[in-house]
Specification:
By secondary structure, the chain is an all-alpha fold. Helix content is 81%, strand content 0%.
């Protein structure tokens, strides 16, 4: 059953088996240490760096000095982090510019609304005076030719007053100051 003839042969081969096992154990430990240093440790470091980058810390970089696949992967992670940081910086600058442009547009819109409201009020008063004087002129029973002129003047002033009122309503709509009223016109 055993290739050994007697117990002495077994005892004589035991030191050889023990030395072989010790050498094998030392080789496995050395290989594990080397594999850990060459492969697993850099991969764990890159994984931590990727976790930091994913969490928003784009300043993290992987140190690499190798020219193999691990070094190439580390270099790729660094390039990716740099591009993300640059893109984020550009987006932040563009957001600042957009916010500034929006603020300027809102300021200009408010100025336009105030201008329209002021001008509408300023134009309405003289137009009411024109309509009133035209009506006073019509009430004096002027000659037919003057009566036609005064009637056209009054009608034009009424139309212009309606346009001015519409402009004032638009400015009130833009500034959320328009109050709707129910009208019983049919």
């Amino acid at each position: 059953m055993f290739p050994y003839q007697n117990m002495t042969d077994i005892i004589n081969t035991l030191p050889f088996i023990l030395i072989t096992l010790i050498v094998l154990f030392v080789f496995v430990v050395f290989a594990s240490y080397t594999l850990n240093q060459q492969m697993f440790s850099p991969i764990v470091t890159m994984n931590r760096t990727l976790g930091d980058i994913a969490a928003g810390d784009y300043s993290m970089r992987v140190s690499y000095t190798r020219d193999d696949e691990i070094g190439s992967l580390a270099k790729g992670i660094n390039v990716m982090a740099e591009q993300i940081a640059n893109n984020l910086s550009q987006i932040e600058q563009q957001n600042e510019q957009l916010n500034h442009a929006i603020a300027q547009a809102n300021h200009a819109n408010e100025a336009k609304t105030r201008f329209l409201a002021n001008m509408s009020h300023e134009l309405r008063s003289p137009m009411n005076a024109v309509m009133g004087f035209a009506q006073l002129g019509l009430d004096t029973k002027p000659p037919q030719e003057c009566s036609d002129y005064l009637a056209k003047l009054k009608l034009s002033a009424e139309h212009l007053t309606m346009i001015i009122s519409d402009i004032l309503d638009f400015s009130k709509i833009e500034s959320d100051e328009l109050i709707l009223e129910r009208s019983e016109e049919h």
